[in-house]
Specification:
275 residues; magnesium ion binding; 14 strands; globular; Hypothetical Protein, Haloacid Dehalogenase-like Hydrolase, Chain: A, domain 2; HAD-SF_hydro_IIB; alpha/beta; Rossmann fold; 2 domains
């Protein structure tokens, strides 16, 4: 029996217009009413998903989100962090040097603040276009101190150029960081071992939920760890090939209520049968 459903946002729960369909909303509300934990699992900070949480009615005591690709587990009603994994200042310095050598912009996320660093004079970050609910401020590297919170680093730039520069990242960086494209024009760096699966595992442990009682739904490469981890990993029809290959089940697209279809079949119908 599924007791926790962890759901990605972009390309999964959200349609192409960044909206949550009525059918998706209804299915998740019904699952929550049955006592199933509905957990948004995203690379975004909590401040960037609050409107979606309100739409879904996930702002009550006992509602949780996994943010920063597994770096934080938070209570939705208060924002309280119950599990966290942060990036040390020395990693920010190393990633800045990498970004400079690749001639790409670098943004550092610190909760709801995006620190934009001048790693490239030629290329401007596109991150503000991707997440306009966050606060963006320009920083020099020397202004950053160990007292700051560093959740993750991102490179947001034209897809073609980004793919070219990714090929130039030295192998040791892959040994130290989780490096993954979360959108076609967005590359993210997280501390090694920090994935959506990691965040889900911590929350499941805290709630006393078993791995086989978890269903995850996603579409992009950063969803791979949670698709593999869950008792039931569900890929969207519009998912990248790697996610489809890893998944136990493939549901419909994000524009055709794929999340609702999976929840209705694997969560609601078994609960109905159990009653």
């Amino acid at each position: 029996m599924i007791k926790l459903v962890a759901i990605d946002l972009d390309g999964t729960l959200l349609d192409s217009n960044k909206k949550i369909s009525t059918r998706n909303k209804t299915a998740l509300a019904q699952a929550k009413a049955k006592g199933v934990k509905i957990v948004i699992c995203t690379g975004r900070p909590l401040a960037a998903i609050e409107l979606y949480l309100e739409t879904l009615g996930l702002c009550d005591n006992g509602d949780y989100s996994i943010t920063f690709n597994g770096g934080l587990v938070q209570k939705n009603d208060t924002g309280e962090i119950i599990e966290k994994a942060l990036m040390p200042l020395e990693d920010v310095h190393d990633l800045y040097q990498l970004a400079t050598s690749l001639n790409v912009p670098l943004d550092i996320l610190s909760d709801g603040l995006v620190m934009q660093l001048p790693a490239s004079q030629e290329h401007i970050s596109l991150y503000s276009q991707l997440n306009n609910l966050l606060t963006f401020e320009s920083y020099e590297l020397a202004q950053l101190t160990a007292d700051h919170i560093f959740n993750k680093a991102v490179v947001a730039i034209d897809e073609t150029y980004l793919d070219e520069q990714i090929q130039k990242i030295p192998a040791p960086f892959y040994e130290r960081y989780e490096i993954i494209k979360t959108r076609s024009n967005l590359l993210e760096f997280m501390p090694k071992g920090i994935t959506k699966a990691y965040g889900i595992s911590l929350l499941a442990r805290d709630l006393g939920i078993k791995q086989e009682e978890i269903m995850t739904i996603g579409d992009e490469e950063n969803d791979l760890p949670m698709i593999e981890y869950a008792g039931l990993g569900v890929a969207m029809e519009n998912a990248v090939a790697k996610v489809k290959d890893m998944a136990d089940v493939i549901t419909d697209t994000n524009d055709n209520d794929g999340v609702a279809q999976a929840v209705e079949k694997f969560v609601l119908e078994p609960l109905k049968g159990g009653n």
